[in-house]
Specification:
Blueprint (H helix, E strand, L loop, with lengths): L1 H13 L7 H10 L41 H4 L13 H49 L9 H25 L12 H26 L6 H28 L6 E7 L5 E6 L4 H15 L9 H12 L14 H13 L1 H34 L20 H22 L8 H13 L4 H9 L18 E4 L12 E5 L4 E8 L28
Antiparallel strand pairs: 1-2, 1-5, 3-4, 4-5
Length: 525
Amino acid sequence: MSVAMDTESTYSGYSHYSGHSKKAHRQGRDRHKSPRSKDGSRSEKSVTIQTPPAEPLLGNDASRTEEGQDDNWGETTTAITGTSEHSISQEDIARISKDLEDSVGLDCKRYLGLTVAAVLGLLVFLTPIAFILLPQILWRDDLEPCGTVCEGLFISVAFKLLILLIGTWALFFRQPKADIPRVFVFRALLLVLIFLFVFSYWLFYGVRILDSKDTNYQGIVQYAVSLVDALLFIHYLAIVLLELRQLQPMFAVKVVRSTDGESRYYSLGHLSIQRAALVVLENYYKDFTVYNPALLTASKSRAAKHMAGLKVYNVDGPGNNASGQSRAMIAAAARRRDSSHNELYYEEADHERRVKKRRARLVVAVEEAFTHIKRLQAEEQQKAPGEMMDPREAAQAIFPSMARALQKYLRTTRQQQYHSMESILQHLSFCITNNMTPKAFLERYLNPGPTLQYDRDRWFSKQWTLVSEEAVTSGLQDGIVFVLKCLDFSLVVNVKKIPFIKLSEEFIDPKSHKFVLRLQSETSV
């Protein structure tokens, strides 16, 4: 009861009533009751809450206050939204738990593959050494003496193993860039080939040398040398399959971002779909501009505003299907299409005018701020040691003079969520340290950059899902389409084969380049 009385008194205070009599309270309630329509449903009402100008609260979403704003809107206006756009259900919880299980499975699969590869690699390098040492340990007295040729083979085995170790480290021991959903076919094929090859060598060694206790030690060493040579050839085969095969461009892929339609073209060689997806994502982070969902709210709010002004009446009764209402609303919106393009034109023109004005103010403010900084030479540093500042202190000293203009520009262009105050100060101190111009400092803020330019916590795309009708381990083919999905958007990749080009030659005799000047009597020449 006390809560209801407090709420009532507060409401009557906003309505400018004294609240000393019950009659005044009753009149205030009757006046502010929501009216009911003829069909008994309560009509919708919206309440706008504005804070006093002395305590401004700047929201991140500036799309709702774009119309009818002056240049000082950031200091006097507060936008408060009370509706959440995100909800969670039992299906979402189940999907999140499934994603966690999938991530655990990917980690186990990755570590299992690394363990198998490490064990197999250790077996490969220890096998030639074991072939040479086992006869010396088991039947040393029965072996024939090792001559000069045999001792030279020891040096050959040592250097070949060293070369194989360096090549294996350079080709296989790399930090993984991503977790792929399926195994890499060529790498798994090479591991199986190496295992079968080493197993066959051990089988022959056990049957022909260990069982019979062969006394020809030079032949045993030569057998170990042949194993190392074969391993070097397998390493060359791995270089061809894993590195050289994909270098020649064979396909042209078009990558389109589903939200804003930004697209890029890339050339790829013979790759599987999952490896082509990795190449696309690597280029996406450095070529595509950062995804900004705030730029998409203007069109959505404009469409919602047009649809909100339409009312549909059900003349057939409450039993009619709701699809008829949706068709009626779409038809009415289509009839208003002729006037909506004028609104769009003037909105974009006003936004461009506001951006140009605040960009000019920002450029002037930054140039004036940079004029207060002077780099001291070595002899000047000894004259006034008390006035010297490091780059961080200099950035903090000149930042307040440009902060207002920079804040307004970032809010107008909807980039404020990507630039924190600390990141701006770090970039400013970096520019001061490297003696960069104001134009170089503003380059990051005047034009949106790629995703790699911003902090990782500002990214909207960290985990991706590959969707393909074909098996992800199959190679690229003409006409294949696959999708890379993240939380807020997706990348649609269309694969086209580079056409076969037939180039012919035509010889032109240099002596045929002869010309004559044709004059007419009417000309001034």
